[in-house]
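Lecture 7 notes: from sequence to structure.

We start with a single chain of 588 residues. Read the sequence below before looking at the structure.
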Amino acid sequence: MAAPKKGRNASAPSKPGRSLALILIAIVALTGGMFASGHTTPRLGIDLAGGTSITLRAESEPGQESAINKTNMDTAVEIMERRVNGLGVSEAEVQTQGDRNIIVNIPKGTNSKEAREQVGTTAKLYFRPVIATELSGPAGTASPTPSASGSPSDKATDKATGDEKASSSPSASASASSTTQGRAVTDALKADPSPSGDASGKASPSPSATASGSGDDGELQAQYAALDCTDEAARARAGDGAKPQDATVACGQNSQGQWQKYILGPAEVDGTDVDDAQAVFNTQTAAGWTVTMDFTDGGAKKFASITGKLAKNQSPQNQFAIVLDNEVVSDPYVSQALTGGNAEISGNFTQEEAQSLANMLSYGALPLTFKEDSVTTVTAALGGEQLQAGLIAGAIGLALVVIYLLVYYRGLSFIAVASLLVSAALTYVIMSLLGPTIGFALNLPAVCGAIVAIGITADSFIVYFERVRDEIREGRSLRPAVERAWPRARRTILVSDFVSFLAAAVLFIVTVGKVQGFAFTLGLTTLLDVVVVFLFTKPLLTLMARRKFFASGHKWSGLDPKSLGAKPPLRRTRRPAHPAGPVETKEA
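Now the structure, written as tokens:
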């Protein structure tokens, strides 16, 4: 009795209506979410939507070749990602290539110039005391400008912005004092906090006297005398190789757009002492857009100490320069120690300039210096051609699969095509939702992964259909064959999809960039294949087996027992009973 019971359970029909209702509800819910989010199409990557690709090469300082290592490169990638994301570009790609290259892909619709400045700027920030400053020009044409009115304007780009003024009030002084990058205080000033000059305070020391103790005075004076800040190449070389603890020379633009040159003392405060920076529109004064900075506890103490020392000096030794990547972006003067632990950088910033500077100050300096190796612009037209070619390839592949199913499986092809459409709908909706949620961008390799998935999905149908046909060949009718074939087909489908998903996961982990798009799409569609086969294909075939067209084995159903070479049903034969009944014998 046990054997017949097992057979009946193996071929017992399931309840397909529940599974079909479940997947229908899932499709409706996901589609509703897609329209509610307003993202009705997948987000396109740079190769399809167009954009800019930037290649940056890491360069080490002399004698610091070991600084180019995996740790520093990974840190640089992380900082660049935060900078670009700070611009609202969530789909930008930042990745390493080789040992010293970083690739930055910025999609269309982003200010590529601003993004290039964000990712490539080292953003090494120092507050250095000003030792000397004057207008710069060709050698022999410089004129001294000891007053603060000749200070460079606050700016985050090469464009000149407005000038900066300080008042005797603490708040105004703080606003001026932290304009951008400060000039180093001289070694003499660090050693002796008293005002420079004589007791009366009427005379200020010469640059050579003020810079004493900060290195080779003759060499520094020679660099300062020869420096022509109107020459771009000279500006790039100014202060090259100078360490934070050394005095140096630098260039900056004032509010009139004129170039000034500086002798700066050792750095007293650096960018790591800045805890946070924000772009703020100041409505209380005419300053407009400003950048507010909050210092760390250690940075606040350093800032209070240096401003206290500088306040005792005469101009220009009562100024400090805010130096960003060896360029003076502001040199405010101070009249008293600033102890509030915060400062404001002002100077007629535009909104973009203020946000750019605040972004770099907030996310920190890059651990390495990078040089722009190449910039490639991908036009939307080229991306559209690639997308069109990918869609045509997908359509051809799908058409070939459908033709094969029609020729070989006939009526069963209806179930296969319906399953492919359900899988395609789920893939499209989920990709559209993944764009705004995790920043997924559909690129050309991802399209290739979706095309490959057509074959994987079709393979699952074929496995199940062939198992059903095998049962029919053994002489079973369609409904028991559908149920008995499912456990064997299910195991094969799960093993096959597991291998495909494992390959996609490994490929996603060990690769970077666009290849990850292929792996991600392949893994996603493999998971959807399991969902569709279990919740749609098998239940639909169970329902179709109850229809006369399939159950009767119509020749166009794809399940005709004759064309499949089915064996006649196995039936138990019985010995016929004797017509006259048992034969009785009589004894003689």
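Confidence is low (pLDDT under 50) at residues 1-13, 142-215. Keep this in mind for problem set 3.
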